[in-house]
Amino acid sequence: MAGQRALLLGLYPCVLMVFSMLLPLKSRGQTCSNYSFPSNQAFGSCTDLPYLNSYLHWDYHASTGKVKIAYRRPSADTSKWVAWAINPTSTGMDGAQAMVAYQQSNGSVRAYTSPIDGDQTKLEEGNLSFDVSDLSATYASGEMTIFATITLPAGNGTTVNQVWQEGPLTGGGTPGPHAFSGANTLSKGSLDFASGLVGSAGKGGDSRLRRKYIHGLLNAVSWGILMPVGAMVARYLRVFESADPAWFYLHVACQHSGYIVGVAGWATGLKLGSESKGITYAVHRTIGIVLFSLATLQVTALLIRPKKEHKYRKYWNAYHRAVGYAVIVLGIVNIFRGLDALNPLNKWRLAYIGVLMVLGISFLCLEVCTWLIVLRRWRSERPSPSQAAEDKVVRGYGYGAGGAINGIFRTQYSM
């Protein structure tokens, strides 16, 4: 029917818009990723550190075991020092091997290394337990940046305990003790330079990080793979007469499996949100709530699905397709929002883009094949080249691209 055809045609631009939004979402969502260093330096990986408004960029060279890092602290107060450190033996400041920077009274920036032997350290200069080279710091436009190349401590592999900190300068222009409350006590965690995995402080942080990855994996499989595959099954397999009613059961199996996995992903998201006080991904959360609500509505609507001959069946079909496509669109968008929040290495984003490319190519191929089959069937089944086709249009057969082939599409799109 005309309204249903308009609905379908209106959904195609939405799908295309999603693909055009995928790459820009990353640049808009992550401060560290869209940052350009004034010196034109480039780093392959970065993370937004969760406390003290800080960011870490790095390049890991597996052949040498060295890591080139840049630690940034925007809106840095010139009356404070900043530091980034690796702790080879523990998770806090005690035992940390730090790189410290602050602006001196003459306007120059001092950068040096300081091994820390206790909470009441004065950050005195000294050699670290691992090699550090190319150490420097800059202060420009209110931002302090520490640059260095480090050799990873032996025995720890590529995963380290990192600590970042800031505190006041004393009247003599030397570093004083940092605060022992709030964000200053939470600015630590684990970091794997090879994989990009970033964990919060302590074992609880590592557990939350694992749950974040489980949450992301469940939702990627559910909303990002099973739901689109289920929709493709319903759209393209039904054109084969031999696939009826198998296509319907396969469609239901994909959609219900996707919903069940999505429920698990949604539940882990709620748990993570309750444990992350003060850390809010408002857009990701809002889309997730809307997405889950629509998916739940879609599943429960099956209980009131009219029979094929019912006069309201065409309206139910239109609703079912509209909500189904909305779930797919929102699911894909929110997966990329989740990738922005989790901030793994870029290969995971590229991997899911690869999945979408496979689905997109499959969609195009199946669309062409479907039209060829429908047109061939129409030519073989029409009783006359004129009146029969016009009668079908007048009677409003089905849901196609218009004209006499609508009769074929009535069968194809009726569930």
Automatic annotation (TrEMBL):
Q: Name one Pfam family in it.
A: Cytochrom_B561
Q: Which UniProt keywords apply?
A: Electron transport, Heme, Iron, Membrane, Metal-binding, Signal, Transmembrane, Transmembrane helix, Transport
Q: Please report the record's description of how this protein sits within the membrane.
A: Multi-pass membrane protein
Principal subcellular localisation of the protein: membrane
Q: Which GO terms describe its cellular component?
A: membrane
Q: Which InterPro entries match?
A: AIR12_DOMON, Cyt_b561/ferric_Rdtase_TM, DOMON_domain, UCP037471
Q: Which residues are listed as membrane-spanning?
A: 6-25, 217-237, 282-304, 316-339, 351-374
How is the cofactor bound here? Binds 2 heme b groups non-covalently.
Localisation? Membrane
Residue sites binding heme b per the record: H215, H251, H284, H320
Domain (DOMON): residue spans on this chain? 52-167
According to the entry, every stretch annotated as the Cytochrome b561 domain falls at 174-375
An example Gene Ontology molecular-function term: metal ion binding
What does the record give as cofactor?
heme b
General function of this protein? May act as a catecholamine-responsive trans-membrane electron transporter.
Q: Know the name of this protein?
A: Cytochrome b561 and DOMON domain-containing protein
Biological source species: Trapa natans
